Amino acid sequence: MIKPMAPPPEPTAGLLRYCLVLSGVAGAIGVVSMALAAHAGNGTSLTTAAQMLMFHAPVFLGIGILAQIRKVLLLPITAFLLTAGLVLFCGDLFSRTFANDRLFPMAAPIGGMFLIVSWISLTLGAIRVRPRF
């Protein structure tokens, strides 16, 4: 007797929720930062942080949606590196703007490297994805 196949578990549901929340948070903080930078006298660091958040907010959406469509091995790693990179890079720029101090030495460059590695991780994960016809 052949047993009916149980529906596969949704291992990516958590990743989808994580990415949707981070997309919204990055977008909201990015918009607020853009507004603050526009009204501040010298907000170049604030503008840079806002742009980084705004550029990466849709990436979180894409990662979350892709995680629901396909199982891509490196997506959780990509999402983690992207999060860590934005927190370090933007957090250091916010800290310099609002507290006149750094998070810690090399926080922004380390965050930037995490962002670069997250994009490489996304690229490597995409290489393994096969289209369905």
List keywords for this structure.
133 residues; mainly alpha; elongated
Q: For the record, give the distance between the C-alpha atoms at the N and C termini, rounded to a whole number.
A: 31 Å
Number of domains: 1
How many strand elements? 0
Order of helices and strands: HHHH
Main sheet makeup: none
Strand content: under 5%
Helix-residue proportion: over 70%
- Alpha-beta classification: mainly alpha
Our Rg estimate from Cα atoms comes to 18 Å
- Helical stretch count? 4
What's the overall average pLDDT, rounded?
86
Shape: elongated
Low-confidence stretches at least 5 residues in length (pLDDT < 50)?
A: none
Could you describe the 3D structure shown?
The chain has helices at residues 13-39, 44-69, 75-99, 107-127. The chain has four helices and no strands. The longest helix is centred in the first third of the chain and has 27 residues, at 13-39. It is 74% helix and 0% strand. The mean pLDDT is 86. Helix 3 (75-99) runs antiparallel to helix 4 (107-127). With 133 residues, the chain is mostly helical. The protein has one domain (13-126).
